[in-house]
From TrEMBL:
This is BTB domain-containing protein. Signal peptide: none annotated. Residues 33-100 form the BTB domain. SUPFAM superfamilies: POZ domain.
């Protein structure tokens, strides 16, 4: 039986900060696009002004690397075209079609790549709502990989609360073999009390990864 987290910590997406500039009207306007993204499965056209306003990565890309290029074509090989379309929809409209667990695992790396912090936080909230004894170890690894401090802290507390059940799960054994430093961190965190645990939380809040 799965043990779901019953903690309702910042689950309201209204509390998640969003960028203030609205580009909804541009989203369906394909006549004034000035950049083309090329994928194995097709192309996507977009507007630099929207991308630069919402993503510091795109801002740097278009103000420096693209300044001397005439074709304004960018090849994307590490993100599926469907995921990139969803990222663009978020950039233009501040909305996401779905944040189910399968979708989130694809969106999160892209949100991190383009430094879309509000979307990254939304993904973290969605992942937290789905935490169970079976997936807690994977969740902690994911939180550490993408430096999601609040999700790290919540997941550590959850693991400590359900330690005996979680450590018996096959997923925990796999995590110990692949990420021994994270497993060690769990053991240490479980034994900590008071000020020492607060120090660990302080470091994680400043996005200090376990490894």
């Amino acid at each position: 039986m799965s043990v779901m987290s019953n903690k309702n910590i910042n689950s309201n997406t209204d509390s998640v900060p969003t960028e203030s500039i609205d580009f909804k009207e541009l989203f369906n306007d394909k006549t004034s696009t000035d950049v083309t993204f090329i994928f194995v499965g097709g192309i996507i056209k977009a507007h630099k002004v929207a991308l630069m306003a919402r993503s510091p990565v795109f801002k740097e890309m278009f103000t420096q690397k693209m300044a001397n290029q005439q074709n304004n074509e960018i090849k994307i090989s590490d993100i599926d075209i469907e995921v990139f379309e969803e990222i663009l929809k978020y950039i233009y409209t501040d909305n996401i079609s779905s944040l189910d667990k399968n979708h989130v695992t694809k969106l999160l790396p892209a949100a991190c790549k383009y430094k879309l912090d509000a979307l990254k936080q939304m993904c973290g909230e969605s992942i937290w709502k789905e935490i169970t004894v079976e997936n807690a170890s994977r969740t902690l690894v994911m939180a550490n990989t993408y430096k999601m401090a609040q999700l790290q802290i919540r997941t550590l507390h959850f693991i400590c609360e359900h330690f005996d059940e979680i450590t018996k799960a096959l997923s925990y054994e796999r995590m110990k073999n692949r990420h021994p430093k994270i497993a060690m961190m769990i053991e240490i965190f479980k034994q900590m009390k008071g000020g020492k645990r607060k120090l660990v939380i302080y470091l994680m809040e400043r996005r200090v990864a376990f490894e």
